[in-house]
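Subject: sequence -> structure tokens, single chain

Hey, anyone have a minute? Need the predicted structure for the following. Not urgent.
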Amino acid sequence: MEEGQDVAFEPAKLLWLIQRDFLQGKSVQEMVNEALQHVPNNDGDRNIDQVNQIRDSLAIMGDNSTAFSLPQPHLLRTKLCDMKDGELDLVYVKKRDQLKELVASIIRPKIVQGRTLNGKEFVAFLEQILEALNKGEIPSTGSLVEVFNKGILERCLKLYSEMMAKLPLPLSEKSLQNVHENSKGEAMKSFDEQHFGRHHAKRSVMQLDEEIEKVYKNFVMANEYQSAKLCEALYSRCEDRMDQLQVLRLPSMAKFNAGFLQCNQNFEQECVGPSKANYELRMMKMMGKSKSSFINEYNHRLFNWLVVFSLVMVVVGRFIIKFILIEIGAWILFIFLETYTRMFWSVESLYYNPVWHFIVATWETLVYSPFLDLDRWAIPLGLVAAILVVYWRCYGRRKHGSQRLLPLYNNPKGGTHRPRTD
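Reply:
Had a minute. Here:
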């Protein structure tokens, strides 16, 4: 196409395709004529002027247009893509075939200056038109440029959505914001490299920015939901753990503190996102109440355990092992616990005694350590000990009766040789 030379470009035919349900008793042509009528604009609204201008442009080609109506293919519109022709309305299938024949009959080759263009020539002609549009040599090209930019905008928006969809939610608000800014920058860069025109591209850029912000808000909401879901699960797990530590068979402050610390560490490391601050406050209140409750019950439960333990060891040292030192030690512990509380009127006064602190330290060393959790292994170890005692009572004394290494109970001198009865 030479510069300054007139070009005759035969416009394509217009085909108005209208669903029959929208006719409301009118003919197809009446519907088209009504759609091309001017909209009253008494207030001088610019948007209405643009609408009327578009309708005038379409009306100019009225002699070169065809109207056609189609009935509804099926009542289930949401499943149309999955249906075959045999499932569609017969009238619709028949009218559709007529539409195909009509389209084939009105198709004409593209003609420029009286010469028919082939595919390559038409592409070259279209490139010249686009170049003229970008340079602003053709007036009133905004709508055409926006049509081209719309497809680019959708691709850039899809690029942004795909980049954001790769995020492993939940994330911290700052991390999500950083990824959003990077993804938005990539989408905008891609749009700048592909868009048409200059003046009208600004409007498309603004639209792309608005669409990106809408998608970003959805990701923010999804991040908040995932964060709340994760932190709630961690909170519930710690709450269950604290409840378990409250009812230990063998109370241990060391074990409670270890579980307490582990819960705090796991929550701090795994709970992320906008819900973390809220759940941190809930965790502090819950953990504080649990620790206070455990401490209040700890000394009382340990005192009861030691009383029971001293009585059991009296029986064991007296009748089972018959080891006098064990029985004496157990009696001393029992007498100390009972007389001290009677002398000072309350059990609580015992908890400030240095002897009690020594007893607590010894108890903690025996009950819980990184190598042995007696609360977990108390029953198995008790069974093993019971088996060993039974074995020693039944077989060990017969086999090693003369080799007494422990100060066991003996018959008095000069007494009878009659076996002692327990």
